[in-house]
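Entry 14. Structure prediction run on the chain below.
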Amino acid sequence: MKTETIHVKTSRGGTIAFVARPEGDTTAAVLLIQEWWGINDHIRDVAGRYADEGYLCIAPDLYRGKVARDAEEASQLMHGLAMDDGMETIRETIAETKVKFKAQKIGITGYCMGGTFALRAACEIDELAAAAAFYGDIPEENVLKQLRVPTLFIAGKRDAWINPKKVNELEEAVRKYELPLEVVSYDADHAFFNDTRPEVYDAEAAADAWRRVLDLFRKHLTIAVPTGA
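Output returned:
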């Protein structure tokens, strides 16, 4: 695995994206959207896991260099980030990934705040081939009903923020609009995938969720190779 950073330009100012590259060449990429903490060691570690699975993984810095030291600062940073700002950074990162790395199939994933952006991106950006959103907030119905990208939504039944009521409303919308979205809920808390937070980490749920995400991306990010006549 090799790592680097790339510059991403937006109308609100430039930022960088952390990139983890597999040893071999690939045209399949995964955009990884940060938790409310920012681009920290945990996010870089997850990017490396995707690279180890053969994907180019790009984690754009939606906070433009800021990393929260505690939950209070994380909340301030998250609430200070406009949805339009984050979405523009995601779009520009996709464009840069196509130009710089020749990516042909791009998926998106994210955790907590990143799950919110990942699900919304799946609703708004047709270029995406698949999405896996972990316990992020649900877009308003007029946005959600536009979803055409195959999507996995991961939830925790003990999550007080993305609670069972919100998840039930998402499932109702999936049925109403026949959306290509599967919900998987675990008996776990918010942020159960984050193995740097022992108070919420659930190894069994995290391992199963990781398997499901990899299955989704293998199915939708694989490039068909012509076999010839």
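The radius of gyration is 17 Å.
Filed with the rest of this week's runs.
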